């Protein structure tokens, strides 16, 4: 197959765009579409300081790379979850983020959950009997917000792609979860000390972000988080991939169609956010969920050491 722009050998065919592109023409196309999504949803401007939450995976590292290519002032934030999974998942991930930071000449902020909380994500799972992903999500949201405020970033960007968003929408629709549906959007506006959050890769498939990472020789961790293996979201992604294969463009239409009618899903009156009495981060309760988690961990650890 030949590149539609220059007739050289194509490296990717995107049936949903009826478009084949070569190695040279792919990155400019990808950057142009990144910019379009940023503008379409008014995510940020060249005056804003952007904090990219990087995990060491292809999507978030590709995002960081693409934003700097587009001339945005984008730094990285790596949250070390302390997950090993038998192959040093977190260590490998952190190294991948550090390598890209060096290459881009940008700052990488790092936070160690084990140091901050006093327990890594697997230890939090053991001590709280929470599902690993719920403790992990809580801790990530907390540090993304705290660091964006402390280090004065205007907006937090995450690498969620079309496959991720379509799978979440699919799950929310299967449950007709109005509250989640009302909130699913590539931009969450700033409110009461919660920084604005955006997803510039909302329209790219996993294949497209992977190819962008490959043509730019971005080294990323290929393995999934060991806790995510077998998650329902992966099962839903598989189903959506089958639909997409049968009818290219299904995921994008599913998402865009939803964005058009999304306002019909009303979010119930949202409780006002006030500063946590311990850490000052916005919360709906006196003490925020993060501080309550840290307290709980410390109590459990104290009980263990006594016993
Ligand atoms: Zn070409
Ligand atoms: Zn707090």
Explained architecture:
The protein has 307 residues and is α/β, with parallel strands linked by helices. It folds into two domains: 45-270, Rossmann fold (3-Layer(aba) Sandwich); 271-307, no CATH class. The chain is built from twelve helices and ten strands. The chain has helices spanning 23-40, 58-69, 89-104, 113-117, 121-128, 132-150, 162-175, 178-183, 206-215, 232-246, 250-261, 289-306; strands spanning 10-14, 19-22, 49-54, 73-80, 108-112, 155-157, 187-188, 196-198, 274-275, 282-283. The strands form three sheets. Strands 5-4-3-6-8-7 form a six-stranded mixed sheet, with helices on both faces. Strands 1-2 form a two-stranded antiparallel ribbon. A two-stranded antiparallel ribbon has the order 9-10. The N and C termini lie far apart (68 Å). The mean pLDDT is 94. The structure holds zinc ion (ZN) (2 copies). One zinc ion binds at residues 3, 5-6, 8, 21-22, 24-25.
Query: How far is the first residue's CA from the last residue's CA?
Result: 68 Å
CATH topology of the largest domain: Rossmann fold
Let me know the CATH homologous superfamily of the largest domain. Answer: HUPs
Average pLDDT rating:
94
Q: Total domains, how many?
A: 2
Q: Regions with pLDDT < 50 over 5+ consecutive residues? A: none
The Cα radius of gyration reads 20 Å
Characterize the main sheet.
Answer: 6 strands, mixed
Describe the secondary structure blueprint for this structure.
Blueprint: E1 10-14, E2 19-22, H1 23-40, E3 49-54, H2 58-69, E4 73-80, H3 89-104, E5 108-112, H4 113-117, H5 121-128, H6 132-150, E6 155-157, H7 162-175, H8 178-183, E7 187-188, E8 196-198, H9 206-215, H10 232-246, H11 250-261, E9 274-275, E10 282-283, H12 289-306
């Amino acid at each position: 197959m030949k590149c539609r722009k220059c007739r050289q050998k194509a490296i990717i065919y995107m049936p949903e765009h009826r478009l084949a592109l070569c190695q040279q023409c792919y990155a400019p196309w990808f950057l142009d579409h990144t910019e379009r999504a940023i503008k379409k949803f008014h995510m940020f401007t060249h005056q804003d300081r952007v904090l990219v939450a990087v995990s060491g995976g292809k999507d978030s590292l590709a995002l960081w790379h693409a934003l700097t290519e587009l001339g945005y002032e984008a730094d990285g934030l790596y949250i070390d979850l302390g997950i090993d999974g038998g192959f040093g998942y977190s260590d490998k991930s952190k190294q991948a983020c550090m390598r890209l930071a060096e290459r881009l000449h940008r700052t990488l902020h790092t936070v160690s959950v084990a140091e901050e909380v006093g327990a890594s994500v697997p230890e939090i799972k053991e001590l709280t009997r929470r599902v690993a992903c719920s403790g992990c999500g809580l801790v990530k949201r907390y540090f993304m917000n705290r660091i964006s405020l402390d280090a004065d970033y205007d907006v937090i960007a995450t690498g969620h792609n079309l496959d991720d968003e379509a799978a979440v929408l699919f799950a929310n629709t299967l449950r007709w979860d109005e509250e989640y549906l009302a909130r699913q959007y590539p931009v969450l506006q700033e409110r009461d000390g919660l920084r604005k959050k955006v997803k510039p890769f909302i329209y790219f498939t996993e294949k497209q972000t992977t190819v962008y990472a490959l043509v730019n020789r971005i080294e990323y961790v290929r393995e999934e988080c060991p806790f995510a293996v077998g998650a329902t979201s992966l099962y839903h992604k598989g189903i959506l991939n089958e639909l997409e294969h049968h009818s290219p463009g299904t995921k994008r239409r599913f998402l865009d169609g939803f964005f058009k009618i999304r306002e019909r899903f009303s979010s119930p009156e949202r409780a006002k956010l006030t500063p946590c009495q311990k850490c000052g981060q916005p919360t709906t309760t006196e003490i925020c969920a993060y501080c309550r988690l840290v307290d709980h961990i410390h109590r459990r650890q104290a009980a263990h050491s006594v016993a």
